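job 3f2a | input accepted
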Amino acid sequence: MEIKDMQIEDIEARMSEINGLLNSEDADIDALTAEVDELIEQRTALETRAVNKKSLLEKVATASVKPIDAVEERKMDNTVTKAELFDALAENIKGRATPEQRALLTTNATGGTVSVATILDDYIWTDWEKSPILSRVRKVYIKGNYKVNYEASATGAVVHKEGSAQPAEEQLVLGTVDFVAEYIKKWISVSDNVMALRGQAFMDYIHDEFGHQLAKTAEAIVLEEIVDSELSAKVTHAIDGDAVLAGLAKLSDEATNPVVIMAKSTYAKIRSIRTTAGARIEDPFEGLEVLFNNNLAQEGETEMVLVGDLDGVVANFPEGEEFRYIVDETTLATQDMIRIIGKVMMSAHLVRPNGFAVISAQ
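job 3f2a | predicted structure (362 res):
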């Protein structure tokens, strides 16, 4: 199909194919660059046409005489209503959005339209920020695999008195962390009745099924990286009133805003410990904020306490933080069911030596 004949969905499909081709060593970068430029030009033309059509329809509608209760609710600044935005977002996820609805989601907040980020930030993709762990992790958005260097060791600066021999050259040893992103996925099968839900009702359903679970898995990936990383200090110490102090002592100077991460059962156990004199420990967490994740005390696993600065962890989202959806109406068609797949691509690594201490009794 020639680019001039493509619709929005055709352009998105080709963009996805080109993204895959870029990973090939023999990819013709010049040809692909030219093609992407043409695709963007065609998509812009289609979106402009849809916006112009919407504007024309609104002019025709306002020229007609309608009862007051039949006039569509609008904001004072003539932008579309929140209900329309939810309808557009819901139908877009289903793959059933009209060109006008697509225009609402793919253009910036000009001319009576609102960008998709405006809706997502305010409503559904808040799970990243709701998580006290994920919200503290540094986020980058670099496409493909990439490397981060860290200072493994270095000699310090010295005072050089005038006229004395020059100081020795700094001995710097760098380490490298490789970021290879993978998809976090979840899928469910739903009935036609669910797909018939509109607007906010459908978005509420999707959020309940996907948002929290995908964010929860991302949080588990961050903690697993901290526990397994060669850059974290491994501390063998009883999980008691001194455990946090033992971990804090191992942190580097660059860990300037440390927190404590533990399961709620571990928190309760430490809080309940009393000294031999019978007095309750005043603050076993050394004044640090305590964050909870029950993965750190799963049945049959070693109980752990993490102490460190989450700013030393970097999470890369090559495709952005927004969850992507695939609606498959074919695979389970004989069962009158529709499969919805939610996914987000991510990799996370600790990039600061001794940025975290992992305390366990063994």
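job 3f2a | Residues 64-78, 107-118 have pLDDT under 50 and may be disordered.
job 3f2a | closed
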